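ugh ok so i messed up the first submission bc i forgot one of the chains. this is the corrected input, ALL of the components this time, i swear. 806 residues overall. if the numbers dont match what u have on ur side tell me asap before i send this to the collaborators (the ones from the other lab, u know who)
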Amino acid sequence: MKPIPVNPDRLLAELAELRRFGAQGKGVARMAFSEPDLASRALLAERMRDAGLEVTVDACGNLFGIPPGVGPCLLIGSHSDTQPLGGWLDGIYGVLCGLEVARASLESGGPRVAVVSFQDEEGRFGGLTGSAVWAGVMPLAEADALHDAEGARFADARCTVGRIAPVAEVPAGRFSAYLEAHIEQGPVLDQSNEAIGVVEAIVGMRGFTLRFVGQANHAGTTPMHLRRDALRAAAQFIRDLEEAFAPHVTEKTVWTHGHLAVEPNAASIVPGKASLSVQMRDPDSDRLETLMAIALELAETIARDRELALEIEQGPRFEPVPMSQALVAAITAAAETHAAGAWRRMPSGALHDASNVAQVLPVGMMFVPSIGGISHNPDEDTAPEHLVRGLVTLADAAGRLAS
Amino acid sequence: MKPIPVNPDRLLAELAELRRFGAQGKGVARMAFSEPDLASRALLAERMRDAGLEVTVDACGNLFGIPPGVGPCLLIGSHSDTQPLGGWLDGIYGVLCGLEVARASLESGGPRVAVVSFQDEEGRFGGLTGSAVWAGVMPLAEADALHDAEGARFADARCTVGRIAPVAEVPAGRFSAYLEAHIEQGPVLDQSNEAIGVVEAIVGMRGFTLRFVGQANHAGTTPMHLRRDALRAAAQFIRDLEEAFAPHVTEKTVWTHGHLAVEPNAASIVPGKASLSVQMRDPDSDRLETLMAIALELAETIARDRELALEIEQGPRFEPVPMSQALVAAITAAAETHAAGAWRRMPSGALHDASNVAQVLPVGMMFVPSIGGISHNPDEDTAPEHLVRGLVTLADAAGRLAS
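and heres the new structure output, hopefully the right one now
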């Protein structure tokens, strides 16, 4: 296997160039189908053409650069849209790594490598919308009915795709596998001084909302034993769940109560209602079911003991997505070569386009560190050395897979 | 001692009459110095004059009806303003009881009894404003600077007092003691099927806000051991405080977390900040200090253990107000006469005008039941039988005091 001779300076220069599209201070505002997003996709299309790739955009705005030749080839990429005000690396790092690997391989007569930027990963309309439609997870008609916070419809927004490149559908059959490099968006690699994360699985998620309903009362005139205090119930649930989960979780399990709404929420009134979000993530589907059952039983016990009503509203539910063993092996070998002793296998706690693409192709994912674990924030950053090490490792893995 | 021969039918008729001022459905909207408040005070002034009382309003809008004769006399009353949308009995019950006792006593050649309706008890501007100024607890200049939610100033609102009655100051020296009847606004009498509550003390209060400050993070990518979750700290505080307080509280102690604000309060983000109200009420000042110290120590321990910053903002602080022993004895004797076996001594968990008046006069308070403990709500109600039993008991106590 001959290594693909990537040029790190081109990656760093193009990252800086793309940062200007939608720049706001240190951050980037480049939501799907905004003017900066369309302009940046047009520039990406131009760079792909300059590299000798055949450029196509599909009806959803997913932008592909495919090398000449026949037969399925490796696809590398991510997304180039951002959060309403996001960081300068989230998504675009994986797209530009894909572009550099594809270009360097073409230049050096290496294996055929294609590149993609999926659309609306960050959820102006739905979240992972472009890859969901492309992988057949969501019908286009369903995506078309999505709308953003201001009411603009995905169906109307995507009429602009012709401004980016020639429009055509790009069947999954043109590719053999999908590789995605991404910033970690968490603190694990940064805290452990490691350079590469080899993703074993994108974790699954179970979410629901608990609503404890008691009785709002005067905080001075209602004796403790006559209260039906919804916030006390929610607090007990949060606290006791830590103990109830302890025997069942691993270091890869996380659970979060990110949202709590109290009614009437006044210092002198005993809370009558408390709505609490519960979100659990784990790479193991069975464990998620176990945790869900424990949480619901605890909530019911607390509501019964405190004479409260309990309402449960189901929320998001995603199954874990294991990465392809062949791709994990290739990234592992590359990491051992370029970051010996400074890499780890880990789950992805966040969802990525790879979650959808896994429905139609073998997928692999690789992380580089996020300084302080910060992401979805203008302060998001990664050391240049780590950006480069990621590119070199990805190119090595691509060489192993595509040869 | 000759009983004061009150006429319950006049009380019930006047309660129904006053209910029409500011009526909204079953409730009443009669905030201080609103048109319905001014009109109802003008009617009260007319009824006082018809009863043979000398009518005066002071600069704050406190309305007095004083019998002819010399020397200090007993004062009975409460307030006739309401919450933005309150019930039909809160305050006005005590004023009309005072009017009926004063009138019946004059008619029957009984002891001299005066009546008062204090202004802005319910806090359109400040809360207990009229009685605070009258009792010298708050300088008039300070009250004048208060403004309502729309920015209207107390100083401007009180320019209307001349529409109610002749304006003059009414020194506390004109009275020997103050008696206030009020609906309980809590569930204790209703649940125990008792008719009369003899108030021993208006409880004291300590309030403060705890603000736990950690780090907002992605709920998928941040491992549990690297989180600094502000909501988990607040939940632990609420839960552990129950245990920490248990050895120190009595059945008269209450404590409430009525307000909790989480930031950023999104299901997929580990909470970075949580602000929690803590409010404790007890008739014993020393106990309040003990509880305050326990709460602060617990909060500091939790913040330290979880590596969070802790900010503490002091809130309202009221000392307990004991009732006069002589007035408690008179109300007790009257309750034993008119509600034998169906009365209890109890604290007042809510503040009342009596809290302020206690600074200048011996004070006593008496409760009648609130159905379901409901108050500050259009559903507030009390059985007619209990309204009447309260009047008769109050008149009996007044006779014992004024003779």
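quick check: The two ends of chain A are 7 Å apart (CA to CA). that seems consistent at least. Chain A has two domains: 8-203+320-402, 204-318.
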